[in-house]
Amino acid sequence: MFRKLCTVLVISAGVAMVLGAGSAKALDAYITNSGANTVSVIDTAENTVVATIPVGSLPFGVAVTPEGGTVYVTNEIDNTVSVIDTAENTVTATIPVGSSPLGVAVDPEGDTVFVTNHGDNSVSVIDTTTNTVTATIPVGLGPAGVAVTPSGETVYVTNETADTVSVIDSPSNKVTATITVGISPLGLAITPDGEKVYVTNANDNIVSVIKTATNKVAKTITVGFGPVGVAINPQSSRVYVANNRDNTVSVINTAKNKVTATISIASGPYGVAVTPDGKALYVTSYNAAAVALVDTATKTVTGTIPVGIGPAAFGIFIQQPALTFVGSPGDANCFGKTVSALAKQYGTLDAAAEALGFPNVQALMKAIRVDCRN
């Protein structure tokens, strides 16, 4: 398995139905250090480590709840998930899951957590209110990455050994489709409009682009060697792919589905995440025990932050701030209120779509309709 050979990544993006993001404290980045059994907490305003949290054995995957109050970390050797309270940066619960848990994702409402169990080909479903497993879903061989659509209705899971992606209907917790992709799929990320899924295939150096409307691969993009982590810039049509074997990050333009730039990173890039303003990219360097800070405008490394041994940070380790809804989901005037507010805030709907990371106004309108129905 590539994951083991690597020198020893859900997304649920916020929807456009907002007047703006909350402006609480600066966001933190949560880095799982698989060789140190810790999580490093990076203050993204100061770019310094402000806490180091002991967790289980071989922490790998990470996900932050939408409001930023809780972090879920998979511990591969312990077969557990550590629950971290971000206010105190302490572990408040440990949840037994399946064998060799790797990926983890939280739904947009923050009610449900999905954990891939690589060793027993299943996904554990966790209720965040009780922090207990409420369901176990059989999927393909060697499940690794997991991501949830913005609507919260669908979950996508990469099956590393089977070279497939399982599509799960969230309300019923059942697999509704299986998609053949490249060799050893690992990371995946979903666009803010919920229309496309980008899947890294570690052993044939490609990214598969899945259309969620058909659940078919619409495009295959050649990237660097050993792609693992993947993240989408919430403020632009860019996807970032960490190529572990050639120490680079590929930058993909989602409108054209082509690589437009390649960024050199220190030894063993693995996990990748973007700040909510889209200006900074954080990339873990697995072999260097560090996190590289990249300016997305210039596509250059501007700094390096030392962390623990073997930083993986497989998942969304920087969360978007909480969003303030304008229209109320379920109300008859929800759609109209939201569209009017966005037009007023950004001047035009074209400007709103661009600022919020949607490829066009049609995609923005679709996302608003989905949220208004929820």
Q: Would you give an account of this structure?
A:
- Helix content is 10%, strand content 48%.
- The protein is mainly beta.
- Strand 14 and strand 15 form a beta hairpin.
- The termini are far apart.
- It folds into 2 domains: 2-324, 7 Propeller (Methylamine Dehydrogenase, Chain H); 326-373, no CATH class.
- It is globular, with a radius of gyration of 19 Å.
- 55% of the residues are buried.
- The chain has helices spanning 2-5, 334-346, 349-355, 361-373, and strands at 18-21, 28-33, 38-43, 48-54, 59-64, 70-75, 80-85, 90-96, 101-106, 112-117, 122-127, 132-138, 143-148, 154-159, 164-169, 174-180, 185-190, 196-201, 206-211, 216-222, 227-232, 238-243, 248-253, 258-264, 269-274, 280-285, 290-295, 300-306, 314-316, 323-325.
- The model is unreliable at 4-26 (pLDDT under 50).
- It has a 5-stranded mixed beta sheet with strand order 8-7-6-5-29, with no helix packed on it.
Please provide a brief summary of the model.
With 374 residues, the protein is mainly beta. Helices cover 10% and strands 48% of the residues. The chain folds into 2 domains: 2-324, YVTN repeat-like/Quinoprotein amine dehydrogenase (Methylamine Dehydrogenase, Chain H), CATH 2.130.10.10; 326-373, no CATH class.
The order of strands across the largest sheet is 8-7-6-5-29
The CATH topology of the largest domain comes to: Methylamine Dehydrogenase, Chain H
Number of strands: 30
What is the CATH domain class of the largest domain? Answer: Mainly Beta
Gyration radius, to the nearest Å? 19 Å
Uncertain residue segments: 4-26
In CATH terms, the superfamily of the largest domain is YVTN repeat-like/Quinoprotein amine dehydrogenase
Characterize the largest beta sheet: strand count, sense, and whether it forms a barrel. 5 strands, mixed
Return the domain count: 2
Strand content: over 45%
The CATH architecture term of the largest domain is: 7 Propeller
